[in-house]
Amino acid sequence: MFVTNEDKFEYRFGDSGPKYLMKGPRANFALVAFQPGQDFDAHHHNVMEENFYILEGKIDIVVDGKVNVLEPGDFIHIEPGEVHYVNNPYDKPVKMVSVLAPHTDPDKFIDPKPVY
Prior knowledge:
This protein has strands spanning about 15-25, 30-35, 40-45, 50-55, 60-65, 65-70, 75-80, 85, 95-100, 110. It has a single domain (about 5-105), classed as Jelly Rolls (Sandwich), CATH 2.60.120. The chain is built from no helices and 10 strands. It is an all-beta fold. The mean pLDDT is about 95. It comes from Tractidigestivibacter montrealensis. This is Cupin domain-containing protein. Pfam families: Cupin_2 (PF07883).
């Protein structure tokens, strides 16, 4: 068991990206932020499944070409092998929770950015 606080961690890109509160040994848990106009590479995982739960804002998560417009309270589950692209084309910041399991590092493979 351990207890931590998000204030002890930083977002990967300063004001955006994932902020991992836990990486392994069985799962990754992160808060993720996107400012208006920001996106994250399209990618897939061969082993890990990824889940997002939206806390604030509105975000597009494109999975295998299907656009999912998500808002607070929405949850999306992404299976291993499904290509996903996260984009905030809206005028407000987004904050969401990300859980990846089982923890496998490395298990991120970049794919072409979808056009939608």
